[in-house]
């Protein structure tokens, strides 16, 4: 399938799903897909009826590969979504990289498991402050941190919010707070605010 044709088909999927979402908040239309690749802890590749697509999990962010716990987070998602798994996408939007941003649901035993939330509950991800819509994501992150699950079992020095890690690697900031601390209250403070930092970078 030509790239332009695939892009148009993806646009139609997004448009149809978003229109349906606006019409019925409690009856979100879902798009069925098959997992073809797990890229890291918060992005996958899938096959839709319209062709291949890339999916970015909404409202969460996982450590980068070169960041502490990055490989473990990726391994956790691969265990949850083996290649060939059938998932259902609750489409939120499309990002700057033309990926579908979605809540990813896994049908299991007659129910649906919210994989975005499960990654948070198990401590494999951070709540993505800039783009999440509901404060419960701060609660789920805080619960995992209090229980020292996943990345929260690592030394505090390894607790670095992924966007800030990217800022550091890109040279946009020169240092991080030491020791690095995070709380539910700090998470809620930046909920829906522009910018992805959880603190004011040093000048």
State the helix count: 6
Could you give the order of the helices and strands? HEEEEHEEEHEHHH
Classify the beta-strand content into a percent band.
15-25%
CATH topology: OB fold (Dihydrolipoamide Acetyltransferase, E2P)
Main sheet overview: 5 strands, mixed, barrel
Decide which structural class fits the backbone.
alpha+beta
Average residue-wise pLDDT: 82
Share in helix: 25-40%
Question: How many beta-strand runs?
Answer: 8
CATH class: Mainly Beta
Assign the CATH architecture: Beta Barrel
Strand order of the largest sheet: 1-2-3-6-5
Number of domains: 1
Rg, rounded, reads: 17 Å
Low-confidence stretches: 1-27, 194-203
Kindly describe this structure.
The protein has 203 residues and is an alpha+beta fold. It has one domain: OB fold (Dihydrolipoamide Acetyltransferase, E2P) (Beta Barrel), CATH 2.40.50.90. The protein has six helices and eight strands, in the order αββββαβββαβααα. It has helices at 3-23, 70-80, 115-121, 136-146, 162-170, 184-189; strands spanning 31-40, 43-48, 51-57, 60-61, 86-94, 100-108, 111-114, 126-127. The strands form two sheets. It has a five-stranded mixed beta barrel. Strands 4-8 form a two-stranded antiparallel ribbon. A hairpin with a 2-residue loop joins strand 1 and strand 2. It is globular and about 50 Å long. The chain starts with a helix and ends in a 14-residue tail after the last helix. The model is unreliable at 1-27 and 194-203 (pLDDT under 50).
């Amino acid at each position: 399938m030509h790239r332009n044709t695939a892009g148009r088909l993806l646009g139609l999927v997004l448009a149809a799903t978003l229109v349906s979402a606006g019409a019925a908040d409690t009856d979100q239309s879902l798009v069925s897909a098959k997992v073809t690749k797990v890229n890291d802890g918060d992005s996958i590749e899938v096959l839709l009826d319209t062709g291949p697509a890339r999916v970015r999990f909404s409202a969460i962010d996982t450590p980068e590969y070169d960041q502490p716990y990055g490989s473990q987070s990726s391994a956790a998602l691969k265990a949850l979504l083996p290649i060939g798994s059938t998932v259902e996408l609750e489409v939120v939007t499309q990002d700057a990289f033309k990926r579908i941003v979605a809540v990813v649901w896994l049908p299991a035993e007659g129910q649906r498991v919210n994989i975005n939330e499960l990654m948070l509950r198990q401590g494999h991800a951070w709540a993505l402050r800039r783009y999440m819509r509901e404060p419960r994501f701060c609660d789920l992150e805080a619960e995992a941190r209090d229980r020292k699950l996943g990345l929260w079992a690592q030394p505090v020095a390894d607790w670095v919010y992924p966007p800030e890690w990217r800022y550091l690697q890109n040279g946009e900031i020169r240092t991080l707070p030491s020791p690095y601390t995070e709380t539910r209250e700090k998470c809620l403070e930046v909920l829906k605010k522009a910018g992805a930092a959880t603190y004011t970078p040093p000048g």
